[in-house]
Amino acid sequence: MKDIDKIAKVVRETLTSTFQKNKILDIRVAEDRDFDGEEILRVDVLFEGAADELDTKSVAGVVRSVRPRLLREVNESAFPLFSFIAQEDVGAERFEAA
Question: What is the pTM of this model?
Answer without folding.
Answer: 0.86
